[in-house]
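Researcher: I've been going back and forth with a colleague about how Phosphotransferase system PTS sorbose-specific IIC subunit might be arranged in three dimensions. Neither of us has a model we trust, so I'd like an independent prediction. The organism is Thermoanaerobacter wiegelii Rt8.B1, in case that matters for your notes. Sequence below.
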Amino acid sequence: MDQQITLSAGQAALIALWVAIVEARALGYSTLMLRFTPMMTGLIVGIVLHNIPTAMTVTAAIQLIYMGLIAPGGTMPSEPAVATAIAVPVAILAKLSPEAAIAVAVPIGLLGSYLYTFRFFVNTFVVRLANKFADQLNERGITFSIVVLPIIVSLVIFFPTIFIALYKGTPLIAALVKTVSAGKVFHMLSVIGGGLPALGIALTLTVIGKRKFVVFFLLAYFMTVILKPLNVNTVTYAVLGGIIAYLYVMLASPQQVEE
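Model: Here is an independent structure prediction for Phosphotransferase system PTS sorbose-specific IIC subunit. You can compare it with whatever you and your colleague have in mind.
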């Protein structure tokens, strides 16, 4: 069966609704992590497009470039959820490699950050309304202006924008990418995209890394190389990591372990 080359209105609406909910934090504080982590958005896209394996393979590559990003004040130089929501369907429709999908995700994520900044601008008017209700000691008004209204604003901003980008823009981008995929320019973008995950890992080490813990990073890397022929899964690595972490704590502070 040939793979679909367009998105239906329903598929675009479902993905756009998910992005709008994540960007609006409509599910509470947990949606903040969903915004910063592309993996869940990639899973939703895979379910909607009935191609979870390809979606997760592409999303895993996109995840690497955002590993070391931080969000001071809630702003990011690129929006992972928006980038994933657009780049993964393009990759599936155009049958792109993960490296090529990264080249598509980066500029889209940058445009998404402008959209998020516009949301901040609109919310300045919401803050004025909240101040007005606070002066009036209107508890219901304060709740509406602080909790409900910002969610509505985000839904109004993100849902139609992402829907149009998916329904109208994604097939066009996919067709364009398929047309130029054999050219030198796209090859250069793919090469650059392939190198961006290394940048994400380097940023992670810079943010959370300490010299005395570098040995554990090297240990994990060489363990994956040595154990690769055994097809060891992630759960096994997590168990091994937990055991090594426990041994480290036990040797570093034996009194705490005894307690």
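Researcher: What would you highlight for our discussion?
Model: I'd start with this: The chain has eleven helices and no strands. After that, consider the following. The chain has two domains: 9-209, 210-259.
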